[in-house]
Each structure stands twice: as structure tokens, then as C-alpha cells.
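Below is the record:
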Amino acid sequence: MQPILELANVESSYGPVQALRGVSLAVPPGKIVTVLGANGAGKSTILKTISGIVDPQKGQIRLGGEEIQRRAPDWIVRKGVVHVPEGREVFSLLTVEDNLRMGAYTRPDKDGVAKDIERVFTYFPVLRARAKQEAGQLSGGEQQMLAISRALLGRPRVMLMDEPSLGLSPKLTKEIFNIVARINGEEGVTILLVEKNVKMALGIAHYGYVLEVGRIVMEDTCANLLQKDDIREFYLGMKSAGARGPRRWKKKKQWR
């Protein structure tokens, strides 16, 4: 299957600090792909590089076969790539409804926007009840629901999701992930998910990449990754029999 989004040998830096070191990955249409890794591995940088917030020094980023690297963020949004950032970043002084309309700012179809607002309310009924309330007055979980809904109003070809469980209770995290899985299944929205809650991410995604210090060191279907002793021990805290302490990545698909 031809990927809708593809990174080929992408390198990105923050000044003298190189964050991505030749990252290559592919996201098939209609699927959820997750990127796993510890803090500082470069997960969020992947999303920021795709969405145009960070310009890559090398490599290509292709959307539907068209190169989009080093384009302006608004151009990339208009092409159908929408970023749900870490920390939600809603417009706190605007109402919930106005936040949703901000997600549709590239669209001229007012009737379609109104219908899509009603549609996202079916996923997140609490937002309907809070529609006239300022977004800054919402709880963290409600703000995360709003950030996802705002992205959906852009009718994305690809949704980039950065740590949707950040700061949420286990109960809310489960609720958010269940709805993300529904959105993918019912709407066919392609999702590239960055997440530290490995169990939740592998539970809803179809394919996963493991990132360490800016490099992809393992990739497989999520069903297979969940069965790997290395993933179970390092990320899920499930000690395998005969384990001799922490391991480190040696190279792609191998440990030492």
C-alpha cells in the first residue's frame, strides 16, 4: 500500500543539537502509526518537522507523493496535515465553539463546518454543554477533547497527535484513546501518534516505530511489538525471565 505520509532520511536540529538522525518512516492511509521512545528521543521533533515548525537539514517528507519539507506551516495545513500539539494549546480566551471554528479557518463551506461541529459533539458530548464557555475554563481532559475536535474541523488527511495522554488521569486517558480509535475507524482519519503511554498507543495503533536519540531502532506491527521481551521490559515494566538488567539499543531491530 502506498503511504500517504513518508519520511526519508530526515535530519533536524535545534541550533547545534541534532534531534533527528536520518529518520525514515511511512504512514499508510487510514491507519494509526505510533512513534515510541523516552523523553528527549526526538518524537515531538518528528511531528514539528512534518508540520513545518522545524525545517529539516536533510531528507524528504512526502504527502501523497508530493514533497512538503521546508514549506510554511499554513501551507502544510491547507494540504491536509493537522497537528494536535503537546499540551493542547487551545485558545483560552475564546469559547469552545470559536476554537472549533478556528480549526476550520481554511474552509469556505459554512454549512459543512456547522455539520462537522455537530459531528464532533457526538464524539465529545461534554463540549456541546461547554460550547459557549471559554476554553481556558475547561479541565485538562476537556481541553484535550477540544484540541482533537478542532483538528477534525480541518478535515485532515493526516492528523499528528503529540502526547494526548499528557497530564490526564488513567480513566480520561482510556476515554481519549477509545475515541481516537473510533475516529480512525469511523472517519478513516490517518493518524501519526506520539505517545509515552506505550500500552495505550500499541493497543490502538496498527504499526509502531521505536525512536532512541533521534534514530529509529525498531519497527513492527503493534501486535508483534507487544510480544517482544525488549518492549515489555523496557517500556511496560514487565520483567522477562532471565533478564540481567537494563539493555540498550545497538542498531535497528537489535538490542545489546
In short: Residues 89-155 form one domain. The longest helix spans residues 170-187. Residues 242-256 have pLDDT under 50 and may be disordered.
